[in-house]
Amino acid sequence: MSRAAAYGRGAGAYARVGVESGVMAASPHQLIVMLFDGAQGAIRAARIHMQAGNIAEKGKSISKALNIINNGLLAALDREKGGEIADRLGSLYDYIGRLLLAANRHNDQESLDQAESLLEDIASAWREIGSAGAQG
What we know:
By secondary structure, this protein is mainly alpha-helical. The chain contains five helices and no strands.
């Protein structure tokens, strides 16, 4: 194995340990922020691939965003304790998922932009809640 390949594998393993350590040390609030960051990063990657005409990678990036939204953000909602707010967030996550599917199916950058904008609105509110909690 070449030195570059060994270094690349070692760097990848180090990055995974860093991410795993960050997740293990994170509060529940920080974990949700990480989910938002991951979904937004996947949407940005999808946009780059869409603009480059790389259909397969665009699809992978949108699938990653959908997975984070459906199996992370949506699954984390506590509808019993969250009541109407949790229900509304659930509906919004469903809508964002439909936008991402439309963006993938029709190569529709406008749907991708709308999904990203909605996620950013929710994420920024979530970050503000964390900042307020840390200060108070």
